[in-house]
Amino acid sequence: MKTSGLLDQLLKAGQDLLNKPQTPAAGGKPATGGLGDLLGGSAGGSLGNVLSGAGGGALAAGAIGLLLGNKKARKFGGKAVTYGGLAALGVLAYKAYSNWQAQQAGAPQQPPQTVDRLPPAQVEEHSQAILKALVAAAKSDGHIDARERQLIDAEVAKLTDDGELQRWLDAELNKPLDPAEVAAAAKTPEMAAEMYLASVLMVDEEHFMERAYLEELARQLKLAPQLKAELESQVRAVAG
């Protein structure tokens, strides 16, 4: 089961959701850069070998829009335009984790092994955990009904012909929301950081149920308070 290509398209879907060009910043330059600008040319080449090719953005936007509902989807769109996809999520997790490490007196300072710096097999493991977190966060306001589920399934089927992945995603959508079960997918501290980062990206923090879910997820992931704050700060930075 390959999840990285689907996840990458879903994370990039915000540009299609907004359905308008980005507003130039002062000096005529785009206000937000592409994936290459976010990566700064430093990410490991292995990620590019795993991700699917271009295309599918509009379909991904449709699937995300159905998951989130129109009003919330447009909020997600604003973040995702800057976010840039799976590799960029890894870069932000790396920044947050590195900042947190630097605050820990006497702690080992080995570079974090985030999804942008891993070989293909580990990219897939991280991607599945992140997608699990993303789906759970999308369900945290409890709004997905049977008709929306059918439409989501149809959109995802257009994005991937991987039957195993489709069945897995269907099972994730059907599960009762359980932060402890979601957190159990985190096999490393870096995976926990990436899962929380993706969840912060997805939720509306002004919504009580969603904020409560996010807080419980952080507790179940056993995130240090300072690391949690760093991850949230990275999302605020890209969301503007």
The overall pLDDT, averaged over residues, is 75
Low-confidence runs = 19-55
Number of helices: 14
Please trace the helix and strand order, writing H or E for each element. HHHHHHHHHHHHHH
Number of distinct beta strands: 0
Rough shape?
globular
What level of helicity do the residues show?
Answer: 55-70%
Domain count, please report it: 1
What structural category do the secondary elements indicate? mainly alpha
State the separation between the terminal residues, measured CA to CA. Answer: 35 Å
Describe it.
- The protein is mainly α and 240 residues long.
- The chain has one domain (4-239).
- 66% of the residues lie in helices and 0% in strands.
- Helix 1 (4-11) packs across helix 5 and helix 5 packs across helix 6 (70-83).
- Mean pLDDT is 75; it is low at 19-55.
Architecture blueprint of SSEs:
Elements: H1 4-11, H2 14-18, H3 35-39, H4 46-50, H5 57-68, H6 70-83, H7 86-102, H8 120-138, H9 146-159, H10 163-174, H11 179-183, H12 189-202, H13 208-220, H14 225-239
Helix pairs in contact: 1-5, 5-6, 5-9, 7-12, 7-14, 8-12, 12-14
